[in-house]
Each structure stands twice: as C-alpha cells, then as structure tokens.
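Tutorial, part two.
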Amino acid sequence: MSGFMKDIKRKAFTLSELLIALGVIGVLTAIVMPIIFNLMPDQNVLMAKRAFYATEMVISDLMNDSYCYPKLNSRVGLDDGYGYARCKKWGGEENQSSQTNENSEKKLITLFTDKLDIKGDVDFNNKTFKTKDGIVWKFSNFSFANNDPDSYVLLTVDVNGDKDPNCGQSNVSGNCTDKNRKHGFDKYTMRIFARGRIQILDCWATLAVRTDKKLVGKEEAVCDTQDTGTKNAECTQPPTSPDDFCCNDSKWKSSNICNSCTSTPTSADDYCCSEESGSGWVGTEACDPCTYTKPESAADACCQEGHKWHGTAICNVCAQPYSKECCLTKLNSIQHGDKCCDHAEVRAQVPICNNEVVTVTTKFYVNAEKPKDSGNWGKTKITAQSTLDKTLPVNLELKFIRNCPSSGVGCGTYGQGMSCIVNAGSNSCTASEEFVSGTFPYRFQYTKNSQGGDFNGFKALYTIMGSPNNYGIKFKFPSGVNQY
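Running the prediction step on this input gives:
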C-alpha cells in the first residue's frame, strides 16, 4: 500500500490556465451585468406609484368624509375650510370653526397628513412634510375658490427625498439641468381639484402610474404635453405669489412677484441672506445677526464698527464714566482723587492715583504805607505764610506768581511774585514781596527743587480753594486777607 501511495502525483493549474480562467470570468461579467441592471426594478417608478396611489386614496377618503367635508350648496369639496363638531382633526365639539376663520388650506394639509405615516413635524409655513418611506411632499399654489370645481392646489413629491437629480418635467416640479434627460426623474407634481380630481403634470410620472408600466429597464418619458398639463400656455397669466407654480416659468421667474427677496429680510437666517440666494441683501445690515441681537456691553462684538449698534449708548464704553472699562480709556487724564482710582487696574497704571495727599494752608497778610487810603495804598508788602499738614522727605518749593490784569500794568516790572521753600522734615515757610501801588491777583505754584522729589510743578488760581490738584497737593486758602 505504501508503495502505491508514493506513486500518486499531485497536479495544480499553471499560471497560464489561471489567467485564461480569469479572462473568461471577466468577459462573462461584462456581458451579464447590464442584463442584471436592466432586470432591476426602477425604484423611482415604484415610489412614484406609491405616492400617487397614496394621494388618490387620501383624497378619496376626505371627499367621502361627511363629518369633515359635508355636502353643501355653497362648497364643492376641498374648498370647504370650515370646522365641524364631528370632524375631530379640524373642529371638534369644543373647537368648531366659525364662518370668519375658514381656512381650506390648513384644513387640507392637516387632514391629509393625518392619514399618512409622517416622519417628524409638518412645516405649515412652507407647507412641507416628509413620510417615513423617504418621500418629501410640498403643497403650493392654493387657489381654492368657494363653489368653484376648477379651483385647485398643487402637490409636488420628491420620491427619493434629497437625492439627485431633484427634478421633473413640469414647470412646477422644476426642469432638470440636463435638458436632454429622458429618464431617471425623481420629482413630479399633481394638480388636485376642489372636487377631488387629480391630474399629474409630469410625463414620466403619468407613465409610471399606469398599470401597464414596466418596472424594469429605463423607458424614455415621452408624452403628449396636452395630457400632462406641462405646456407653457398654463402660465399666460401673472402669478399671484412667490409660491405660485408659474414662478418656475422663465416668463415670470424674474418678476417682482416671484422674487421672494424683494422685501427686507426679517432674520439673519432668512434664505435671502444666504449666498446661494444671490440676493442683494447679502452683507447688508438686514442680514447682520447683530441687527436682531442687543449687545450686553460695550465689549460685545456687535458694538464693533459696521454693526447696527455701533455708536449707540449701549456701545459707549463711557456710558458709565467711572466704570473700569471707561477709566482704562482715559488713563492720561485721570487726576488724584478721581473715582477711577478705585480700580486696582487703574492704580497699577496711573502713579498719581497712589500719591499721598498733602494739604497746604496759606494765609495772606498785607502791610501798606497808607492803610487808611483804600483807594491808593502806595507801597505795599504782601506776605504768604504756608503750613503743611505733614512733613515731607523732600524740599517743597512754593511759588506765588502775580497774575497780570488785562491792562498789563505792573507785569514784568516788579518781579514775578514770591516764593519760599519748605525744607525736608519741616512743615512751613513764609514768602513775601513788596511793590508799589497796584492790584495784582496771585496765582500759586509749587515745584520740586533741584534735589528732586515726588511732586511735579503745578499752577493754580486761588479761585480753586480746597479743590484737589493733579499731583496729590491740596491748597487751602482761608477767606480774607489779614492786615499787619
């Protein structure tokens, strides 16, 4: 037996044989795949049937619902917008609609969507909703007129939701960018008349809902336009609103009534504020989010230049003059004792806020040759005795400079005034000056001496009695002048 096993030879495919086999498989695949694809059902056709039959069933149910659409001489069907006691979804016993609030549009949308398997909420503003099978539905062009069987509403469906190509063959559903497209459409529109009759406006959908329609292959959609209602003659009259299906017609597309961006946007999220709208409102104040949001402070981004609030009181950093933000904008003009010095950030940048206040009390004395002659004192001596309320580690020079009258008499003739120095560690000094007849008011000045010090020069008229100055020195002048 073992000898027999040794004689067995194992053989495998050669490389050439493998390449030939793969080539045969490739050829067969190329032949079979198109056949398989052509045998696959057209999903858009199936969904078009589904949407139409669902619409047909719902409209039929509504027209036969005597609780919500009773037979009235004044109404033909869907033009009836009244609410009734036994119509639970539109009226009810506790919410019956009166003649004054009839609304055939909202009534139809409410009752129609109630009979479908809706995904999410109904957008009543845009008259749009989506079903769980992925179809997107949109009502438009409500033109129901009381007791008019020819009045209608349009219902457009996108059978594959948001997938491409998002176009159909009518003015309402929107023509495809590819003008040569003959199949593969996914949108179509139905006209629903007040008495319940339904007319499909797109050729491909008209073919799709026929009972003899083939579900496989890609049949070209070619119809008689008179049967589908796609002819442009339907839009000979101007549309009445931007929602009118004739706004898709090139004849009216650029008209004011169809241009939904002719009015001012009321929100930065308005479609007319988006780049894709191509609207002239893009970049304007009407599309600025700050237009609709009030800033909370001057630091708010909406207070920047170019926004609505720029320059207003709420964006004025100094609307509260002693706020930290305002004080930080006027560091160079802050004086000693200013309330801005209460902020640590300000004190850190303005040395004057940290100076010690020194009060200088100055008394004036006068001695004249002829003190009884008040009109002409003759030669007069003025003495200023100054006292500090504390001693300083540096010398402080006090200057009392004559302020020339408007006539200029005496200015520059008898000197510039008087001065004295309060030495470091001391707290007083006396200055005096003699001059001939004349009345010269004084202004007062103190400066640091040549040895340096913590205080800078200051000039002030005596009329600022008791007021703080810029540098921590406070002058105090008792009223009256003492006579020797």
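DSSP finds eight helices and 15 strands in the chain. In part three we will examine how such features are distributed along the chain.
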